[in-house]
Amino acid sequence: MAYKKALAAAAGMILATAAHAQAAGSNIVSLGWFRVMPNSSSDPLFVNSVGGAPVNQSVPNTGAKIKEADTVGLAFTHFFTDNVAVELVGGLPPRHKIEGTGSFSGYGEIGSAKQWSPAVLAKWYFFSADSKFRPYVGAGLNYTWFSDEKITSSAFQNQVLGRGTPGSKSNVTTDSSLNPVLNVGATYAITKDWFVGLSVSYLPLKTTAKIDTTLINGVHIQSEAKIKINPVVTFLNVGYRF
């Protein structure tokens, strides 16, 4: 009978551990798939100067939009209480294709850039720590910057930025920004240590792309485009508690 009592006690301990897999003090690492879906629009291309002389003129019926992108996401979550957690989230930077709109639409893809968007979120989990299904809401801050920005259409480069002059080159830079993040989602416990999760986030994000074009004769043309990105981001993931 002693061994039966020992087995029952061990089973009770296992069940108790499984029942509090997302309790105060728990740490969870999640790996999964980010889908970044911009709701983008832009102001017309604005020419600041040509050869150092101010122009300050917009080009009517021009614009650009940011296309969707996929990447690998990684998150670390710590539970301070059974219901309150803080999450650090990031991932491999997705490369966004940029397409022309208005009179630029005929060029198709005109550029691309990589987006870096780490974030920290405070999250409130509903239900008790022993619930398998736990929805949550969250809010936090995101810092976004871009890298490897470039013009990818030679026709757009020569005909628009180079003003019909072959052999021009352009350097593109973008602003970085600190942005709020709104987040909703849920996790489902498969075992005491393994989880699956899905979240949806929204970022009110905008940037200014600054373009320095050098013509073949050495003349510089400075122009810019203000772009609203405002992405909705989904994160389908698998998590492990340790």
TrEMBL record:
One of the Pfam families matching this protein, by short name: OmpW
GO biological process: transmembrane transport
Cellular localisation: Cell outer membrane
Signal peptide positions on this chain: 1-21
Keywords: Signal
An annotated GO cellular component: cell outer membrane
Protein name from the UniProt record: Outer membrane protein W
Organism: Ralstonia edaphi
